[in-house]
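User: Here's a structure from my thesis project, written as structure tokens. My advisor, Dr. K., wants to see whether a designed sequence matches the one we expressed. Can you design one independently, without my sequence as a hint?
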């Protein structure tokens, strides 16, 4: 994108009789920056990640008008100069940073700035689709041209809200309406390729915007992910495939496919796709629908994603493996034939696995610390045949004469 134009915070203030009471120029007011530079290098031991039930960042299904406080951040427009990138998985209501605002008259014969252009980035990548548009908590009905069709956003043939949707494709072109109506501040070079965004054009109306500029959000079907079962990229809310995408992506852990136990992810994806019965029908066992903020740590991101499938992720033998929560039939039944010997009931008093010479005192007998050698160990085992195996030998207090002490079996 070309160099940023001057900031225009005045445009974003509350509405008076018009969007802005005085002429204010447009410009870029924000920029998205990467939350992580390059591939994240992470080294852990297995098991690496277990879901934390008290961090429910990924919601199974949210009502448009009933969004919990924990999810408010991703549904609100962000008005700040710098913000982290966001990745959308599955289908979710989302908003994002406001990266451009420009006010202008309806036509050249007026000095009233009744038209406000806003550009909001919904995701830092290409997405599948942008569905319903929501002003505050109200769905705005649009026609095929993106123009509002119902009051209060259309009255007597005048449209007071128009929305253009851009999916962030690699060949995305600049919004023609912005290029034509921003006085050169938005040019053909402002294409926002790789950034899903919406261009919102508001025309001032006291009834429609009595409380000021509304919070604008949308129902977004997000990132296209790799499916090793078909070896293709397509939109999916399969939780296992979303976790795999984060592992493979540059903004995630940046792993190669050779570092993935593909079979474990295929099995996990199949489990996620299983239909389970509900009170009203069936649904997929596990789906992942949420927004990843790259300002969070990779560990917290993966823990939240794994919470959507009751899964845990391990890294063994140089490969990542995923296990999701589902019943697995037993592979072996253990019965009495697997026992080494018959079951014998013994008293607790007679059960022991260590020996101690109790009459020795390090201070009184001048004992020194050393290890028990193999020959002494064999002698102790011969003297005490109830001890079948010795797990470890500890440093002992022994005297040069008696050579006795404690052994751990």
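Assistant: Designed independently from the structure alone:
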């Amino acid at each position: 994108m070309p160099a940023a134009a001057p900031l225009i915070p005045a445009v974003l203030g509350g509405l008076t009789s018009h969007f802005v009471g005085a002429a204010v120029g447009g410009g870029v007011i924000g920029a998205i920056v990467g939350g992580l530079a390059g591939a994240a290098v992470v080294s852990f031991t297995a098991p690496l990640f277990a879901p934390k039930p008290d961090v429910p960042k990924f919601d199974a299904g949210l009502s448009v008008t009933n969004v919990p406080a924990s999810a408010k951040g991703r549904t609100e427009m962000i008005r700040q100069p710098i913000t982290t990138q966001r990745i959308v998985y599955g289908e979710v209501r989302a908003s994002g940073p406001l990266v451009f605002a420009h006010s202008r008259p309806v036509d050249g014969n007026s000095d009233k700035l009744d038209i406000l252009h806003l550009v909001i980035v919904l995701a830092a990548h290409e997405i599948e689709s942008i569905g319903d548009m929501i002003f505050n908590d109200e769905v705005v009905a649009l026609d095929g041209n993106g123009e509002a069709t119902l009051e209060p956003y259309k009255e007597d043939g005048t449209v007071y809200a128009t929305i253009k949707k851009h999916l962030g494709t690699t060949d995305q072109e600049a919004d023609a309406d912005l290029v034509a109506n921003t006085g050169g501040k938005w040019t053909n070079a402002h294409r926002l390729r790789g950034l899903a965004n919406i261009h919102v054009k508001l025309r001032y109306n006291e009834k429609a915007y009595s409380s000021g500029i509304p919070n604008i959000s949308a129902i977004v079907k997000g990132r296209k992910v790799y499916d090793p079962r078909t070896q293709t990229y397509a939109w999916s809310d399969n939780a296992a495939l979303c976790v795999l995408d984060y592992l493979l992506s540059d903004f995630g852990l940046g792993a190669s496919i050779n570092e993935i136990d593909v079979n474990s992810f295929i099995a996990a994806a199949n489990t996620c796709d299983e239909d389970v019965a509900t009170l009203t029908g069936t649904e997929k066992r596990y789906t992942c629908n949420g927004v990843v903020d790259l300002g969070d740590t990779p560990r917290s991101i993966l823990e939240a994603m794994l919470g959507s499938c009751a899964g845990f992720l391990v890294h063994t033998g140089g490969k990542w493996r995923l296990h999701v929560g589902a019943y697995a039939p037993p592979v072996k039944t253990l019965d009495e034939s697997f026992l080494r010997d018959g079951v014998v009931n013994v008293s607790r008093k007679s059960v022991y696995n260590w020996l101690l010479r109790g009459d020795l005192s390090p201070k009184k007998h001048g004992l020194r610390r050393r290890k028990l050698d193999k020959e002494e160990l064999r002698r102790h085992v011969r003297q005490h045949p109830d001890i079948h195996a010795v797990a470890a030998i500890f440093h002992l207090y022994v005297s040069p004469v008696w050579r006795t002490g404690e052994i751990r079996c």
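When you compare it with your expressed construct, this may help: Residues 9-36+65-221 form one domain.
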